[in-house]
């Protein structure tokens, strides 16, 4: 009889893993565990729709009736509503913030307020759905800063990434995976569609010592600062022996670099004067992925300082993002310091 303690002989569901993580925190009441479970459920529900997206498009634009007689929703609207509806009534959250909603989202008056804050990008890169490119959901969880019991506020949402209690993403690709951390390592789960369960497939993920890739939209080179240009030129030198891989879907690019080794860059650029600080969002894209990256031995910076140390000033604040293998990523700060006056 094989040793039942061996990972290869044990099936670990994501619920089991959440509970094991909770045991490491004796003071935990189980609210974070239940919140993470609800996010896994949201991932399964969104995954079930992403595989039908092409069919939904055949059925016509938003508002058409599909074969089940349901109204066809844009997928990112569906994803946003799914996460909201799974979390608005549970009494675990003080408030929420979503990439899809201009304002922070209060918990409805009639529902109890909890001690956690959920920030999320329901479906990042949804424009890639139509061309069958992997997309993802990203989530960030904080403890509220305002006193317990009352409604959460925008202040509860505007916290630096170093305050994160949990972060994760779901990637909807050739397989559906959920990757998360509560500050005790990074763990990946693959959805077994027959069982409808996320099963542990990537325990204790660490970025490989020998990175393979760098990811940047090379077409924006004319708009980069001198420091960023010198940094990317360094990435391209023979000493790093890297290949360029850029999918244009943040979660997919990040996930590949996390598992295979590499660094992802979305620099500030002068392409769009309205968007001088880069395209990606701090609170529900850069900060949660930065938490995961650092837990996996990597690093994330805006070119000047650690992403997790940035004090947010607005809900949809954008930041330049350099994230991945530490020895490949941290040097951008030196190049920016040296060449960008
Ligand atoms: P660009 C997708 O639209 C997204 O927000 C991220 O997922 C992705 O990393 C980025 O934009 C790609 O942007 O300007 O290179 O097309």
From the helix content, strand content and strand pairing, which structural class follows?
alpha+beta
Task: Give the count of structural domains.
Answer: 2
> Under CATH, the topology of the largest domain is which?
Fructose-1,6-Bisphosphatase, Chain A, domain 1
Helix content: 25-40%
Q: How does this model look, in words?
A:
- With 341 residues, the chain is an alpha+beta fold.
- Helices cover 30% and strands 20% of the residues.
- It folds into 2 domains: 4-202, Fructose-1,6-Bisphosphatase, Chain A, domain 1, CATH 3.30.540.10; 213-339, D-Maltodextrin-Binding Protein, domain 2 (3-Layer(aba) Sandwich).
- The chain has helices at 14-23, 31-50, 53-58, 75-87, 154-157, 226-236, 250-260, 282-295, 326-329, 331-339; strands spanning 93-98, 105-106, 116-124, 135-143, 166-172, 176-181, 186-192, 197-202, 213-215, 243-244, 262-266, 299-301, 321-324.
- α1 runs antiparallel to α2 and α6 (226-236) packs across α10.
- The longest helix has 20 residues, at 31-50.
- The mean pLDDT is 91.
- The chain binds 6-O-phosphono-alpha-D-fructofuranose.
- 6-O-phosphono-alpha-D-fructofuranose is lined by residues 124-125, 127, 217, 248-250, 253, 266, 279.
